[in-house]
Amino acid sequence: MKFFANIAMRLSTFASRGFSRAGLQMRCALVLVGLLWAPSALGQGQTLGAMFSGGNEAFFRGDFAAAIGHYEQLVDAGVRDPDVYFNLATAYARHHDLGHAILYFERASRLSSSDDDIVA
Questions:
Q1: From the CA atom positions of the chain, what is the Rg in Å?
Q2: 75 with 84: CB under 8 angstroms?
Q3: Cα angle: 43, vertex 74, 57; to 5 degrees
Q4: Rounded to whole angstroms, what are the CA distances from 67 to 6, 43, 48, 116?
Q5: Measured between alpha carbons, how far is 73 from 55 in angstroms, rounded to an integer?
Q6: Number of domains in the chain
Q7: Which residue has the higher pLDDT, 118 or 49?
Q8: Of all residues in the chain, what percent carry a pLDDT higher than 90?
Q9: What is the CATH number of the domain that holds 39?
Q10: Domain extent for 11
Q11: What's the rounded Cα separation, in Å, for the pair 108 and 103?
């Protein structure tokens, strides 16, 4: 029970302090470079990089439902990347779906235990 209370405290702190736009943009740029090299795995012919960019654009517009849709398509296409999970968790947190936010923060944490933004 203490574990979930700790996660809830982290989510509320994370959501209340806002995000470093420059830090999030740098993280997004690094993931985008990796995704551009990946082959297209989506039936609509969209590249994974375009899907990630679409998620980021929707997130920064405040359209968290659309951002979740884009990031979920990446996960469905087989992308297992801590930054995709982190962005998806953040979008879920902003969309007030804390259960999914916790799930994807945990997945991001398992893949990248050295990233201070994810672990904190």
A1: 14
A2: yes
A3: 105
A4: 26, 19, 14, 23
A5: 10
A6: 1
A7: 49
A8: 47
A9: 1.25.40.10
A10: 2-119
A11: 9
**Paired tokens of 27:** 């993280």
Q: CA-CA distance, 71 to 51, in Å (whole number)?
A: 7
Task: Please tell me the number of Cα atoms within 13 Å of 42 on its side-chain side.
Answer: 19
pLDDT, mean over the chain: 74
Identify the residue whose tokens are 């990630």.
52
Q: Which ranges in the chain belong to alpha helices (H)?
A: 2-17, 21-36, 48-61, 64-76, 82-94, 98-111, 116-119
Of the candidates 43, 36, 30, 39, which has an alpha carbon nearest to the alpha carbon of residue 82?
30
Query: pLDDT for 6-31, tens place per residue?
Result: 444 454 444 444 555 555 555 555 45
In this structure, are residues 68 and 88 in contact, taking their beta carbons and an 8 Å threshold?
Answer: yes
